[in-house]
Amino acid sequence: MDAVATALNCNVLVLNRHYLAIRVINVRRAFSLLCRKMAEVIHIEDGQYLAYDFDGWREVSEFKREFEPDSHDWIRTVRFDIAVPRIVRLSFYDRLPRQEVKFNRRNIYARDGNRCQYCGRKFATTELSLDHVIPRSQGGQSTWENVVCCCLRCNIRKGGRTPEEARMHLLAVPRRPHRNPVLSIKLSDGRYSSWKQFLDHAYWSVELK
After folding, report:
1. What is the average per-residue pLDDT within 12-39?
2. At residue 192, does pLDDT exceed 90?
C-alpha cells in the first residue's frame, strides 16, 4: 500500500465544542469539515493544545514536511502537501451522544483480541465462533457477560455444557466494555496516541463511522 493510500485510510477523532470526544471519521470527511469552516484542527505539541483552521494547518504542514516528514501521514495535492490531522474540533456542536457499545460479533472478537477464551490461542476470525458460557439450553442469555470468543475445537469440546461441566476454564471473566473495543485496538497504533487523553473516561462511548 503506498503512502497516499495509507493516509486516506487514516481516522480522525472528532471533539465537540467543549473538547469531548463524540465519534471517529475518515480523512475525507475531516477535510470537508475543515474546508467548510465547520471544524478546526487540534494539535498537541509540547503538552499544549493548538488550534488551526484549514489555512493555518496548511502552513504548519509546510514546516512539518520539511523538518518532521516521518511524524505524519500526508495528503498530496497539485499545489501542496498537507499533514493528516489526528483530531478535529467542531465549531458549533455541543451535544455528547450517549451510546452503548453495540453487542455484535465484531466487537466481541475485538474485546477478546481474537483469542479463544478457553485455550488461549489467537485465531483468524474465520476460525472462531461465539460461545455462551452458560448454554442457552440451561437458560444462558446472549449478553456481554455470557458470550465469549471461542475456537471451533473448544466449542465442539464444550458442547452444551458449562465450563465447569466440561472441565474447561475461562481466561478472564467476560465483561461489557466501557468503550468500543475496536477503538481500543486502534489506540495501540502510535499515530493515534494523542487520542488517548480524550478517551480515558469510561463514560465516553465513541461512535465509529
Report:
1. 89
2. no
Query: Each residue of 34-72: b (16+ CB within 10 Å) or e?
Result: beeeebbbbbeeeeeeeebebeebbebbeebeeeeeeeb
Q: Write the pLDDT tens digit of every residue in 62-97.
A: 998 888 888 888 888 888 899 999 999 998 876 655
Asked if residue 140 and residue 186 are part of one domain, the reply reads no
- How far is residue 86's CA from residue 103's CA, in Å, rounded to a whole number? 27
Cα separations (Å) of 79 from 28, 75, 76, 85?
18, 11, 8, 19
149 inside domain: yes
Q: Write the CATH number for 162.
A: 1.10.30.50
161 located within any domain? yes
Does the pTM surpass 0.85? The reply is: no
Residues 84 and 11 in one domain: yes
pLDDT: is 183 or 178 the higher one? 178
Helix (H) or strand (E) run with residue 109 in it:
helix 105-111
